[in-house]
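ok trying again, last paste got cut off:
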Amino acid sequence: MGEHLDRWLSSKRSIRSTTRANYERDIRLYLTPTLGRTPLAELRPHHIDDLYNALLSRRPQPATASLVRHLHSTLRAALNSATKRRLLA
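nice, full thing came through this time. structure:
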């Protein structure tokens, strides 16, 4: 999954610099550390649910719902790309 996220981000050439920075932050701080070692073909909904639940329940400062929605948007875009490239069913 980590390799796919990196390739997906590098393929995003015509996006605003702030969007790129947000994608890079999401991938570097949240998605790669938790999902990066999971093979793309083995990624399941429970992996994503576990990530969101861990972020929302972390202490001392839980993630905001806004951050989780933003991560979900980034992850959805990356996974949609994988589906279009037939890397995922």
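cool. The chain has one domain: 2-84. The two ends are 15 Å apart (CA to CA).
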